[in-house]
Write a structure and sequence with these properties.
heterodimer; A: mainly alpha; 2 domains; B: mainly alpha; 70% helix
Chain lengths: 134, 248
């Protein structure tokens, strides 16, 4: 049922060291068939979404309630993580309450960033500069 | 009529003892195994016939496959399909656990934070390990946005790191808190029915109101059970997307 056209070759290499290695011809034929099947599926699938469209706003197609659930906890999570890190730093370095103050504020900033990202106001972060491919 | 009582873990019989800690077979384990059996029956039963014109079970299995694969493909791209087994397992497991939990006298496994944290950390470490394995140190550029002046870059990347660290927290707390709150609300309204009913005839009339609420809340809980599984799955896809795609 599952089509494996998206899987790169290295997936086969990683586990193919056992008895499967003994029939390279069959293996190659199977890979070719899977590849052809994948190509055919890609042609049939009507709106194979373009890379830019899907990258624009991940999860934009989820229902409104799902997004609401998501937003509600993002801010809290950021603040909680900030408080936890601040508390640990206070304990380790004995500089109470400065670690808590600084990291709670940073955590709040991270929480706001989370919410804005989840809402699609701020584009999600990319590892490469935007000029490289877009 | 303690609304928290339903979440109690009961040890049924001990399995093993690891370093002085007893590992017991609990009621939570029973329902995890039960949902595993349901999923196995559903998927294996649905794919055993492989008819060209699918029957009921087969078309349900196909719909669930298509649903998860479309979600994964639209958020993480075609390369994301190599994580399909992970996402499908997580989605189906959480969905079945949530839905079983609505049935009275059952135990809702996902209302325990240890379970949801385990799921969230599994996803978190998958993203980190795969991200470093695939992109090497370029994965760290996730924390360094481009086009930021150098003098505020340390601050911004610090906030980015904390935003990244808060992911498993929000990922796990959302599912746990929704299930916990929903089940407590149901129990409280159910408790009102019996308490008012003890007052006699007028009490029974008054009890109709919380009874109606209980019915409506059960329907809402069914929606929440599905939505939380879906939210968990789609966030897994979004996080995996960060690890798979170095950039667009």
């Amino acid at each position: 049922m599952a089509d494996h056209h998206g899987r790169p070759r290295m997936g086969n290499d990683a586990r193919g060291t056992g008895d499967r290695e003994q029939q390279p011809a069959e293996q190659a034929a199977l890979t070719a068939r899977l590849h052809r099947l994948g190509e055919r599926l890609d042609r049939i699938r009507p709106e194979a979404p373009a890379e830019q469209a899907q990258a624009a706003r991940p999860g934009a197609d989820s229902s409104a309630m799902a997004r609401g659930f998501r937003l509600s906890s993002e801010l809290v999570a950021g603040v909680l993580v900030g408080a936890a890190i601040g508390w640990l730093i206070d304990r380790w370095l004995g500089i109470s309450p400065w670690g808590m103050i600084v990291f709670l504020l940073l955590g709040f900033a991270a929480g706001v960033l989370n919410v804005m990202r989840a809402a699609g106001v701020v584009p999600p972060n990319r590892m490469d500069p935007p000029s490289s491919k877009e | 009529m303690d609304p928290i009582h339903q979440f109690q873990i009961k040890n049924l019989f001990p399995i093993a003892r690891v370093g002085g800690v007893e590992i017991a077979f609990t009621n939570s384990t029973v329902f995890m195994l039960l949902s595993l059996a349901i999923i196995l029956l559903f998927v294996v039963g649905g794919t055993s016939r492989r008819a060209l014109v699918p029957g009921r079970l087969q078309s349900m299995a196909e719909v669930s496959y298509e649903f998860v694969s479309d979600t994964l493909r639209s958020t993480a791209g075609p390369e994301g399909m190599k994580f399909f087994p992970l996402v499908f397992s997580i989605f189906m497991f959480i969905l079945v656990l949530n839905v079983i939990g609505i049935i009275p006298y059952t135990f809702s496994v996902t209302s325990h934070i240890i379970i949801t944290v385990a799921f969230a950390l599994l996803v978190f470490f998958t993203v980190i390990i795969y991200g470093f394995w695939k992109n090497g140190l370029r994965f760290l550029k996730l924390f360094v946005p481009s086009g930021i002046p150098i003098y505020i870059l340390p601050l911004v990347s610090f906030i980015e790191v904390m935003s990244f660290l808060s992911r498993p927290v929000s990922h796990s707390v959302r599912l746990f808190a929704n299930m916990l709150a929903g089940h407590i609300t149901l129990k409280v309204f159910g408790g009102f029915v019996t308490m008012l009913g003890a007052l006699g005839f007028l009490g029974w009339l008054g009890a109709l109101v919380p009874l109606g609420f209980t019915v409506a809340l059960t329907a809402l809980e069914l929606l929440v059970a599905f939505l939380q599984a879906y939210v968990f799955a789609i966030l897994t896809c979004i996080y995996l997307n960060d690890a798979i795609h170095p950039g667009h």
